[in-house]
Amino acid sequence: MILFSLTILFSVGNASAQTVKVSLSENKAPSEKSILVDAKVYISMCVSEGKVKINGWERNEIRAFVSGGNSVNFEVRKKNEQTRNPLWVEVVGFEAGNNKNVGAGECLFGEEIELDVPLNATIDIKGNASETNVNAVSKARVKFQNGDIFFNNVAQGIEATTFEGDVTVENSSGAMNLTTTTGNIVAFNVNPKEIGDIFKSRTTSGAITLQQLEFGQTEANSSSGSIRFTGAIQNGGQYIFGTLNGAITLSIPQSSSGKLNASYGFGAFNSELPLKNVVKPNTSKTQSLTALLGTSGDATLNLETFSGAIRIKKQ
Amino acid sequence: MNNECFDIGTIQAFLDGELAADLIEKVSGHVASCDECAIFLAEAEEESAIAFSALEQEFNTFVPTRRLWTKINDSIQKEEKSFWQTVEAFFSTQATVAFASLLIVCGVFTWLLILDGEKKADDLAEIFQKSESLTVPNIDSIVPETTFEQISTTAPNIKKTIDKKPAVSANNKTVDRGIKTSLVKKENLVPRNAVPLKAKSENVALMTSETVPGEDTYIRTIATLEKTVDSRKDEVLKSSARFVFERDLAVSDDAIKKMKVEIRRNPKDETAKQILRASYQNKIDLLNSVADKTELMASLR
């Protein structure tokens, strides 16, 4: 009897959930809304499906646009005590028909989800999107189950995680922490905002490509992917690159200098740049070397691979 | 002393507990208010104590009472009864039956708890087997070396071959499953009971002999994470992601296995130690990524 009741209850619940979903997906009319906010507003959002585009503009206003999905709304979580402008805004989805919030998740979904936000805004998005573009904001924190993430012109740091997708960062500054499981990581022209800002990137099976990075500390790790670094070695910089099966390739200027610690287990090592004071332990089967690159040893390069190759090339 | 005071006979009877209840009350009430009677009572009590100590031997002499005789007779009768008659008599009352049922239920629960404990111990031993690469001198002949390329191209085939491999060799030493452990499902493993106790204790002993400082911490962390991830990876990872995950796990396990072999060959091999640590960390990061994804998915529900 109890089992029978539970089955009926489950069926009814399932059917009602499907009804909600159908009614939501049927709502294809674009939804648009805007709100005046503080210049340094913190924007949080949950996305369950769609292509997300976030763009910074010079107005102290958030404009949200959703096409082919649910309707958009703003929930003000915190206000600036002096100006009374919203300081923390949550962008939520709701069912257009009865003006009620969709549910506990309050995630937005649609074909396209666009946000125009103040240039100094901090964005915090989580969920599931096919593709995410973030352009010209102060700080970004993005965590998606899958989908590629692109950042451009982010001023004060990025924390990005996608489990199945690529992470690309261009022309940005601040501390970076980029993680993907099966995708690649590309960082181009990325600099620290403050002294002490660290660049960290990690992928399990993808490749990491870093070009023109000027961080004091740069870390890149991959399980089976390769790591490629192109650019100048910073004075006093620390570079920690590790991969198990992939190759590590540094394309650096001939004038580069630093202390090199390379562990390449059962792999190989090759350098086009001259190395001084090369020390190779002869007692072990696993291979490693320490050497001086260039004239001084200000920077430290720790390169580690289990069975891949380490190559240092002239830029 | 006043007129209400009791005579020596009554006092003695009071001490011997031979008075009626109302009289006891009267005597004790009076003694509480009359100092002379209290002294009198104390003296009588003292005399009684002396008399009792003198006669103690006599009092303690064993004289069978009627009750004792009855007990003896009952015992003789029980001896004469058959076993089943005794059992029947024992279970003749409802209270006894209820108590016996309770005992049986308790016994069953205790047995189940013991079984569960044994299962946990076996699981622990299995985790040790998985996480610790236990090497035997001829390991390479037992488990052929597998390169990354081989893993990535022939992963499904590897699984088939591994499933047939015994977890325990003929000389009762647990062999290293190396990179394959992650590919083999629990149900495909050799039955837990097949691992002899000696081998289990050897595993535990080897767990404590670290190849690099802090290795135990890595192993414990990995075991904990594996426990979490194993139960959820099917629902969290799609088939393609699952394949990549298993492949990367295999790569990490392969690196760990080979580096441990190298360290055992040459304990001063700092490069191998460094790569071993990196491989452990890599495996932890890999498992963490699945745990993180699980967490994210749960937060979105």
Return the average pLDDT of chain A rounded to an integer.
Answer: 86
Radius of gyration of chain B: 40 Å
Main β sheet profile of chain B: none
**Strand fraction of chain B:** under 5%
Q: Shape of chain B from CA axes?
A: elongated
Oligomer: heterodimer
Helix count, DSSP H or I runs of 4 or more residues of chain B? 13
Q: What fraction of residues of chain A sit in β-strands?
A: over 45%
Hey, which two chains have the biggest interface?
Answer: A-B, 37 and 38 residues
Mean pLDDT of chain B: 67
List the helices and strands and how they pair.
The complex is a heterodimer of chains A (315) and B (301).
Chain A: H1 2-26, E1 31-36, E2 42-57, E3 61-67, E4 71-79, E5 86-95, E6 100-101, E7 108-118, E8 122-127, E9 131-135, E10 139-146, E11 148-152, E12 158-164, E13 167-173, E14 176-180, E15 185-191, E16 198-203, E17 208-213, E18 217-222, E19 227-230, E20 238-243, E21 248-252, E22 258-265, E23 268-271, E24 275-279, E25 287-293, E26 300-305, E27 309-314
Parallel strand pairs in A: 2-5, 2-7, 2-8, 2-9, 8-10, 9-11, 10-12, 11-13, 12-14, 13-15, 14-16, 15-17, 16-18, 17-19, 18-20, 19-21, 20-26, 21-27, 22-26, 23-27
Antiparallel strand pairs in A: 1-3, 3-7, 4-5, 5-6, 22-25, 24-25
Chain B: H1 8-16, H2 21-33, H3 35-54, H4 56-60, H5 66-80, H6 83-90, H7 94-131, H8 139-142, H9 148-164, H10 197-208, H11 215-236, H12 239-265, H13 270-300
Helix pairs in contact in B: 1-3, 2-3, 11-13, 12-13
Question: Which features would summarize this protein structure in a list?
Answer:
heterodimer; A: 315 residues; mainly beta; 1 helix; 27 strands; elongated; B: 301 residues; mainly alpha; 13 helices; 73% helix
3D architecture notes:
The complex is a heterodimer of chains A (315) and B (301). Chain A is mainly beta and 315 residues long. Chain A is built from 1 helix and 27 strands. Chain A has a 27-stranded mixed β-sheet that branches. Chain A starts with a helix and ends with a strand. In chain A, 45% of the residues are buried. About 8% of the residues of chain A have low confidence. Chain B is mostly helical and 301 residues long. Chain B is built from 13 helices and no strands. The radius of gyration of chain B is 40 Å and the shape is elongated. Classes of the chains: A mainly beta (315), B mainly alpha (301). Chains A and B meet through strand 12 of A and helix 12 and helix 13 of B.
